[in-house]
Amino acid sequence: MMDETCAAKVEATTEDQPKPKCSCTMARKFVVGGNWKMNGDKKQINEIIGFLKSGPLNQDTEVVVGVPAIYLELVRTCVPASIGVAAQNCYKVPKGAFTGEISPAMIKDVGADWVILGHSERRQIFGESDELIAEKVCHALKSGLKVIACIGETLEEREAGKTEEVVFRQTKAIAAKVNDWSNVVIAYEPVWAIGTGKTATPQQAQDVHKALRQWICENIDAKVGNSIRIQYGGSVTAANCKELASQPDIDGFLVGGASLKPEFVNIVNAKQ
Predict the structure, then answer these.
(1) Known catalytic residue: 119?
(2) I want to staple 173 with a disulfide (CB 3.0 to 4.6 A). Which of 120, 130, 229, 262 is the partner?
(3) Which stretches of 20-162 are DSSP H helices?
(4) How distant is the alpha carbon of residue 128 from its chain centre?
(5) CB within 8 A of 70, min separation 6: which ones?
(6) What percentage of residues in the chain have a pLDDT greater than 70?
């Protein structure tokens, strides 16, 4: 049975009701995450921490680094306190016979405060369903972690005109189990743009972010839709970050390969 504290009723706005207004101009703190994926050893991590400390990083931007589980405690003790540290995955229960998994309680125990869930690699390679991801998000939030929840369509889905259908479906699954969105950041990552060198144009990305925000306003809550931060992810670099960051509904980035390089500092500073 689903925990009642996690459940949120999601209903479509009926035709005779006015649509809630979404504001792309509402002040939302820019947030940039660096997802290291399965990369890095102690030597490289020290180099990354070195350029993060040297910065300088825009103080008006929230920064989070997504770290392989084995290095979470090391990174938390070495990076400045102003930088959040995220696990790249966790399971949906506190403990048990789940070989190879880690729990939100373990993540918190080593001092980390974020987790990345639903990344396309978890969905595509490891077969994680919308339902499982939603359960993970629910448990992570209940355990006191902040969550970067990833959504996004494949190339085939985009070419079939199903982008909005897919991202709305993925978000609806999470909304069915979450009623407090204050510690959730959504990362829209078109699968076809992750690690491929292809990037959605600023307008393509903005269009999806705007549509998603409107869907949240109409189907979850207008206050949530106006306040929730929606990141863009997919081959973000120092070269394209400023134009992407200028879009009114893009509230940050979830960065892959570039987060391992000094150019990550430039991406963090995209709003300057």
Answers:
(1) yes
(2) 130
(3) 42-54, 72-78, 104-109, 120-124, 130-142, 155-159
(4) 16
(5) none
(6) 90
Alpha carbons 212 and 205: distance in angstroms, whole number: 11
Contacts of 109 (CB under 8 A, 6+ apart): none
| Mean of pLDDT values over 145-155 | 96
31 pairs with which residues across the strands? 62, 252
189 catalytic per annotation: yes
Query: What's the CA gap between 95 and 101, in Å, rounded?
Result: 9
Q: Could you say which DSSP state residue 37 is in? A: -
Q: What is the pLDDT of residue 230?
A: 98
* Phi, psi (deg, nearest 5) at residue 38: -90, 65
List 62, 153, 189, 263, catalytic entry? 189
User: Cα separation of 17 and 36, whole Å?
Assistant: 44
Q: Per the structure block, which two tokens stand in for 50?
A: 């070195």
pTM of the model: 0.91
pLDDT, tens digit, 9 for 90 and up, residues 201-248: 899 999 999 999 999 999 999 999 999 999 999 889 999 999 999 999
Alpha-carbon distance 167 to 182, whole Å? 20
